[in-house]
Amino acid sequence: MVQTPTQKLTLEEFLQLPETEPASEYIDGNIIQKPMPQGEHSVLQTELPSAINLIEQIARAFTELRCTFGGRSVVPDVSVFLSNRIPRQENGGVANVFSICPDWTIEILSPNQSQTKVTKNILHCLQYGTQMGWLIDSEERSVFVYLPDKPIVIYDVADTKLPVPEFARDFHLTVEGLFNWLLE
Q1: pLDDT tens across 120-148, in order?
Q2: What does the DSSP assignment read for 137-177?
């Protein structure tokens, strides 16, 4: 049986498709559906943005927000944008379409999810202006921190304060504090 090769969609064609649950991302011409979040992932994805949003209104954290830039359309678990960079509608409300990279991207590794794919998304964000990326691995109780043009640093000692972008300097969280949310 001969199969006709399927033609890859363009980014514009992908953006016209209905949203999927869980979200699908457009990466290098391929559509890749994210895994369905499970318990630990869900707890961290709920608690972390809430905590970030408590700091002064310098920035805002969004969960599962589609960000389309640099030829990709990705949906980080948490996207943090400086308040003055949040796309707005004419009436001042938050826009539905974000065609820019986040200032801080946070991914939470799900079971059976490719760490390589998630890392590539973080690196893509950094290439287009994201100030910092986190990859949280709840199974290993570690946080990989990515900065532009710097080596990756792994934080896994309980009382170590996690680094944050300069704009979030008033946000303080240790490795232990992050993973304690899983015990509540």
Answers
A1: 999 999 999 999 999 999 999 999 999 99
A2: ETTTTEEEEE-TTS--EEE--TTPBPP--GGGTT---BHHH
